[in-house]
Write a structure and sequence with these properties.
This protein is of the alpha+beta class. Helices cover 39% and strands 13% of the residues.
Length: 363
């Protein structure tokens, strides 16, 4: 076995300046140690580092290309090839997939020269297919590569499963990127990273407010789902009999969303033609809370704010809206473009709430 370092010092420096610069030193060093141990080339994508979430923190997870797994199996001298099959709803295995519909499953048989029986890996479509969220249709859809190459992508997963079973000493802990597409939910990972970033910003705002002696009023808990909402059936993700797997996953309507953990910071404005916001006509202040405090947020479609009353927002949340969402509204209006009515109403209520919060003395 060759004990010389696989990566040179210049290779390591280059990795740390480029693909690994977003990770901590310990995580980068761990990845480099894995590369050195398996002797896989990160520059040719045999192995590479990806972002994942662990207990709310960004962490590095090592992902291996299917070519990298095959290279490790080949180096053992015992890899004796493989066979791949696909099946549809009839359960009949075929050695090629010529259907227009997505396959229901893929099977890979890996042969080991010293094993009596081959190792078999079976990957079901509904367990592994990659997804991405379409903001226009507001539905989960099959991601681009899984839609264009469904047989190839599913076969890669089946092959990775079989290779790891056949060569556990060499491939344990190494996973192909395609195996992780379904667990990530495509763009969901980006959303989780945004959530972590937003929480970090909120913590910084809280520290800044505390340093200035400002008293922070926590927002009220978000309303729980009604019995009718709680009793609503969950979407059926299994494919209908006699048909290909359903490539979409329904997104719950806003009324079914419960607000528990903070989500990403205010996102895009979801533009639709409407009229720019107009100032409310002056009138005598009614008894009780002002109108803006009772306004229910509908235009800022973010789980952290959607469906809540503006009067229930904390100063930190108002500050986040003032810094992130309202500037986008003003930019749209400055361009002469139009907003949805719900966004207009939210913008007016937010402006009033922010003005009120700045007039109040927190001490």
């Amino acid at each position: 076995m060759n004990n010389d370092p696989f990566l040179s010092d210049s290779d390591i420096d280059l990795l740390k300046r480029t693909t690994l610069k977003q990770f901590s030193d310990d995580q980068a060093d761990t990845f480099i140690r894995v590369v050195q141990h398996h002797r896989l080339d990160p520059f040719s994508r045999q192995i590479y580092a990806t972002k994942r979430m662990s207990h709310g923190n960004i962490t590095l997870v090592t992902v291996t290309g299917i070519v990298g797994l095959c290279a490790l199996a080949e180096r053992t001298g015992y890899y004796d090839g493989c066979q791949t099959y696909w099946a549809g709803p009839d359960g009949v295995w075929k050695d090629e997939w010529l259907e227009e519909a997505y396959p229901y499953a893929a099977k890979c048989i890996v042969y080991h020269k010293q094993h009596t029986y081959p190792e078999v890996g079976i990957a079901r479509w509904n367990s592994y297919y990659g997804r991405s969220y379409n903001k226009e249709t507001r539905r989960w859809e099959v991601s681009e590569f899984w839609d264009k190459f469904p047989d190839l992508m599913l076969a890669k997963v089946a092959k990775a499963l079989a290779l790891r079973s056949a060569f556990p000493d060499h491939l344990s802990g190494l996973y192909a990127a395609e195996e992780m597409d379904g667990s990530n939910g495509g763009d969901e990972m980006n959303d989780e990273l945004k959530i972590a970033t937003n929480r970090k910003k909120e913590e910084e705002l809280l520290k800044k407010a505390a340093a200035q002696g400002v008293k922070i009023v926590e927002s009220k808990p978000a309303p729980k789902a009604t019995p009718a909402q709680a009793a609503a059936p969950a979407p059926d993700l299994s494919p209908p009999k006699g048909q290909g797997p359903d490539p979409t996953i329904p997104v719950p309507a806003p009324a079914q969303v419960t607000h528990s953990a903070p989500q990403e910071e205010p996102g895009d404005l979801d533009m639709e033609p409407s009229q720019p916001p107009q100032p409310e006509p002056s009138a005598e202040a009614p008894a009780g809370p002002p109108a803006w405090a009772e306004h229910v947020i509908q235009g800022l479609r973010n789980d952290k704010y959607l469906g809540r009353k503006v009067g229930d927002l904390s100063p930190v949340e108002l500050a986040a809206i003032e810094a992130n969402w309202l500037p986008k509204v003003r930019e749209v209006l400055a361009k002469g473009e139009k907003l949805k009515q719900a966004q207009q109403d939210d913008a007016v209520a937010f402006e009033e709430a922010i003005k009120h919060s700045k007039l109040e003395k927190p001490w």
